[in-house]
């Protein structure tokens, strides 16, 4: 079974309320999705670098997830990878090992608990201060 891709912002926000496992190159979020199947999403913010760097990181993460999720992913869960600063320079095999460890920790329920929303964050709509008038 091939995992499907998360596209809705609400799904990413919901995943943020699940378990979190931090690794040097990424943070893995995992949350049950009420029978929607195995799904994944990738987030790389502008803090990481320019578009070339962010797209390279997303391509690497996409390939990591395609290889790892069918075997190690949790059924009926959303999996979200958030890129971290050192992720693009890390060795691909090392990232794959870290992802396997992170998926195992989530399966064992050993991730950090969900974080509280930051003050001023909204759960839907555009981010504050963004958008035209």
TrEMBL record:
Keywords tagged on the record: Endonuclease, Hydrolase, Nuclease, RNA-binding, tRNA processing
InterPro entries the record matches: Ribosomal_Su5_D2-typ_SF (IPR020568), Ribsml_uS5_D2-typ_fold_subgr (IPR014721), RNase_P (IPR000100)
Keyword Disulfide bond annotated: no
Biased composition, class Basic and acidic residues, residue ranges: 107-124
Gene3D superfamilies: 3.30.230.10
Domain of life: Bacteria
Main EC class the enzyme belongs to: hydrolase
Gene Ontology cellular component annotations, sorted alphabetically: ribonuclease P complex
Any one GO BP annotation for this protein: tRNA 5'-leader removal
Keyword Repressor found: no
Entry GO MF terms: 3'-tRNA processing endoribonuclease activity; ribonuclease P activity; tRNA binding
Reaction catalyzed: Endonucleolytic cleavage of RNA, removing 5'-extranucleotides from tRNA precursor
Disordered: annotated segments: 106-133
Role of this protein: RNaseP catalyzes the removal of the 5'-leader sequence from pre-tRNA to produce the mature 5'-terminus. It can also cleave other RNA substrates such as 4.5S RNA. The protein component plays an auxiliary but essential role in vivo by binding to the 5'-leader sequence and broadening the substrate specificity of the ribozyme.
Similarity comment text for this entry: Belongs to the RnpA family.
HAMAP family attached to this UniProt entry: RNase_P (MF_00227)
Protein name: Ribonuclease P protein component
């Amino acid at each position: 079974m091939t995992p499907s891709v998360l596209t809705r912002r609400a799904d990413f926000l919901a995943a943020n309320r699940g378990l979190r496992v931090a690794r040097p190159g990424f943070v893995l979020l995992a949350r049950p999705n009420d029978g929607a199947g195995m799904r994944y999403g990738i987030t790389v913010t502008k803090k990481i670098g320019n578009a070339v760097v962010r797209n390279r990181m997303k391509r690497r993460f996409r390939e990591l997830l395609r290889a790892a999720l069918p075997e190690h992913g949790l059924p009926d869960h959303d999996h979200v990878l958030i890129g971290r600063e050192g992720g693009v320079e890390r060795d691909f095999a090392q990232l794959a090992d870290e992802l396997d460890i992170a998926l195992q920790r989530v399966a064992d329920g050993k991730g950090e608990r969900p974080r509280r929303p930051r003050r001023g964050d909204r759960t839907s709509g555009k981010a504050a201060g963004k958008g035209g008038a």
